[in-house]
Amino acid sequence: MFNVETIRKDFPILKRQVNGKSLVYFDNAATSQTPQQVIDVIVDYYTNYNANIHRGVHTLSQEATDLYEQARLKIQKHFNAKASHEIIMTSGTTHGINLVASGFTALLNEGDEIIVSALEHHSNIVPWQMLCERTGAILKIIPMNDEGELLMSSYTDILSEKTKLVFVNHISNALGTINPIKVIIEKAHAVGAAVLIDGAQACPHVRPDVQALDVDFYVASAHKMCGPTGVGMLYGKEEWLKKLPPYQGGGEMIAEVTFQNTTYADLPHKFEAGTPNICGGIAFGAAIDYMNAIGFDKIAAYEHELLDYATTELLKIEGLKIYGTAKEKTSVISFNLDGIHPYDVGTLLDKMGIAVRTGHHCAQPIMDYFKIPGTIRASFAFYNTKEEIDALVSATKKAQLMLS
Amino acid sequence: MTIEAIQEDLIDEFSMFEDWEERYQYMIDLGKTLPLIDEQYKTQDNIIKGCQSKVWVHAEMKDDKVVFTADSDAIITKGIIAILIRVFSNQEPKDIIAADTDFIDAIGLKEHLSPTRANGLVSMIKQLKMYAIAYQTQLN
């Protein structure tokens, strides 16, 4: 049984007061909150196991290594990767994207093409622009429509034998659109292109199966799925990870070093130079356990209920417009009040204890498309309630009254 | 009026408000009455960076005093600008440079002073003082 009141007890931060009001946390698409179960694992690690991994013969080091590798296995199982060495521990989604973009420098030639979608976050556009500068490859964009959905016919049109890599987010951070990645992957493979999917916004809501998707690379961040910041994962098919050269040089990623030559370690260590975020990796595993114990089906169903309720209630406010109305979307609502700057609304909502994001959400091209300076974005998680949505609606009305 | 006297007045005015709502409503109203900047000065060069909303500031010298005009696309930001202009505009450069900004705290807007806050109040004050320094250099 899904009981939100029981779940809320797991999150100590939800008891906080902000500006004298009970916190209503609706900035989950930026970062999710951390349950006590994960906090306990972090405390336990530094209390009992803190040691460097993979290189000590002493007991602590071996225990820490075991815990870290168990976390990798949890991640493998969660994403249904074929082998645990196909899971590269990263500092987060951006790290994973840059690792792949850097690796493709060696595989691209002038005139090759990379396709990205118009729904991307800044961090998802810049590495590809840099890759194009390095290699002479050309960046192509899949456009979107007014609902914030990708135009699949345009995608088919720009795909060709020249396409070497397709990069799309699973779910848009600014609008919440769920992209048809299965079809995108199939079409890319038909012309021999590899596909990297950014799952940062999807992983808090769905459980991706990388084998069923047949995706070549998939990246995610722990901090959006109840884990700590500074840790994430890159899944890559073994054949692809073998093809890519190492990203950073350092300890942990080498097999043998002389001044003349170095041989690189096997997967996954080839891509894991230096001491990793050991505690973060272990806590990432605990966060995955926590979310699976609740169940992604139940999480998704409940969040959808919140989304429908919030959409209906917010649209009752006169002059409120929602951006991103795709048929398939997650619990993100980007909106504006007619004639009022999103920054003003966000400032007043904060005074009323409600945490939302305002601004362009690092997705300037999307804001340019709608010709707006930004939006107010409320993003819901499975620990939010309808009562909190009521609080958002009445606070938004009050802000509108004050600002008109 | 001296900068100190204006600041004292502001502190008096704000002390009458009982809660954040009255304080913000007043700032919003101030924002609505802000004399707008001449359209020709709403240029890319006059935009202050570091604000989530757009802020334009223009300065000119009149009778040895710096006159500031400014605008923003967000109303609360305009309210903050209106307060800053009331304090710093029509003052001699040396007085603007020497003025402290403790009154911001005293009128209950301390939260806007944090440099991590994206509204750019800190950047705005810095920009006003930079203009004053530039004019002072010319006078010397």
Summarize this entry quickly.
Chain A is α/β, with parallel strands linked by helices and 404 residues long. Chain A is 41% helix and 17% strand.
Task: Describe what this molecule looks like in 3D.
The complex is a heterodimer of chains A (404) and B (140). Chain A has helices at residues 4-8, 36-49, 59-79, 93-104, 122-135, 152-158, 181-190, 210-213, 238-243, 278-294, 296-315, 342-351, 364-370, 386-403, and strands at residues 17-18, 21-22, 24-25, 87-90, 113-117, 138-142, 163-169, 194-198, 217-221, 232-236, 254-257, 262-264, 320-323, 332-337, 354-355, 357-359, 375-379. Chain A has 404 residues and is an alpha/beta fold. In chain A, strand 5 (113-117), helix 5 and strand 6 (138-142) form a beta-alpha-beta unit. Chain A is globular and about 70 Å long. By secondary structure, chain B is mostly helical. Chain B has one domain (3-139): Sufe protein. Chain: A (Alpha-Beta Complex). Chain B has helices at 3-15, 20-33, 75-88, 93-98, 103-106, 121-139, and strands spanning 55-62, 65-72. In chain B, strand 1 and strand 2 form a beta hairpin. The longest helix of chain B is centred in the C-terminal third of the chain and has 19 residues, at 121-139. Chain B starts with a helix and ends with a helix. Chains A and B meet through helix 12 of A and helix 2 and helix 3 of B.
